[in-house]
Amino acid sequence: MNGIVMTAKVLLDANPHPSESEIKQALDDVLCRCGSHLRVVRAIQRAAKEMP
Q1: At 26, is the pLDDT very low, low, confident or very high (cuts 50, 70, 90)?
Q2: How far is Cα 35 from Cα 14, in angstroms, rounded to an integer?
Q3: Of the candidates 4, 13, 34, 43, which lies 20 to 30 Å from 19 by C-alpha distance?
Q4: Is the per-residue pLDDT at 37 higher than 90?
Q5: What distances in angstroms separate CA 33 from CA 10, 29, 48, 50, one per listed residue?
Q6: Contact 23, 11 (CB under 8 A)
Q7: How many CB atoms lie within 10 A of CB 23?
Q8: How far is the C-alpha of 30 from the C-alpha of 3, rounded, in Å?
């Protein structure tokens, strides 16, 4: 999970409003197969909407 959080932070720092495909591409190497990856993508989308 730490890798997902750090990758999301780097992504949002570089691109405050990424598309869904950009989020998935950034997380491609760190997403687990536990079934939570869709929730992770949605959480990053929500965070991007709250960024200035």
Answers
A1: very high
A2: 27
A3: 34
A4: no
A5: 22, 11, 24, 27
A6: yes
A7: 22
A8: 6
Please give the single-letter amino acid code of residue 9. Answer: K
CB 44 within 8 A of CB 21: no
Instruction: Look at residue 31 and give its three-state secondary structure.
Output: coil
Domains of the chain in sequence order: 2-50 (1.10.150.120)
DSSP state of 36: -
Residue 8: burial class (beta carbons within 10 Å; 0-12, 13-18, 19+): buried
Q: What is the mean pLDDT of the chain?
A: 88
Locate tokens 């998935």: which residue?
Answer: 24
